[in-house]
Amino acid sequence: MNMKPVFSLMATSALLSSCVTSPLPMDRSVASGELRAPDGRALGTVRVARQGNSLNLTLQASGLSAGPHGAHIHAVGKCDDAAFAMAGGHLNPAQRQHGTHNPAGSHLGDLPNLVVASDGTGRMEAILSDAADETLAALFDGDGASVVVHAGEDDYRTDPSGNSGARIACGVLRLVP
Known about the structure:
Elements: H1 4-19, E1 28-36, E2 42-51, E3 54-61, E4 67-69, E5 71-74, E6 114-116, E7 122-129, H2 132-139, E8 146-150, E9 167-172, E10 174-175
Antiparallel strand pairs: 1-2, 1-10, 2-3, 3-7, 4-6, 5-8, 8-9
């Protein structure tokens, strides 16, 4: 019996395994923000984490009315005025229409509704993109980005904002050092 091919296979396998580099951390925070009410009260946090080439957003809120609330990433990183109008429209670099149920949608900034329980707390998670570098470039362009929570439910269809009502909370996204 010739053992040479078996040895070659084992040697090749050992050589390849020594060349494998360590994977990226599975969950690395890249950005965060604090959600605030128009009067400045803290209402929650937003976190963007990189997992491989994906970006995931987690929004945690408290002190909101029970029920579903539209949540979106807005194109400007400003929450300075009481109506949060300075946050601009939804982040939409591809110039699509609003909503995951809209055949011409959706915006990069479209997120699932934040469902708030009767105790005023809610948590929402969403995959923003499987192209992390491109999405980070859109989030942190010259004027940044913010996350806005609306008074009503997003219908995932009506352009430009899902018919989700007034802006009731806003948080500017900032890169994590």
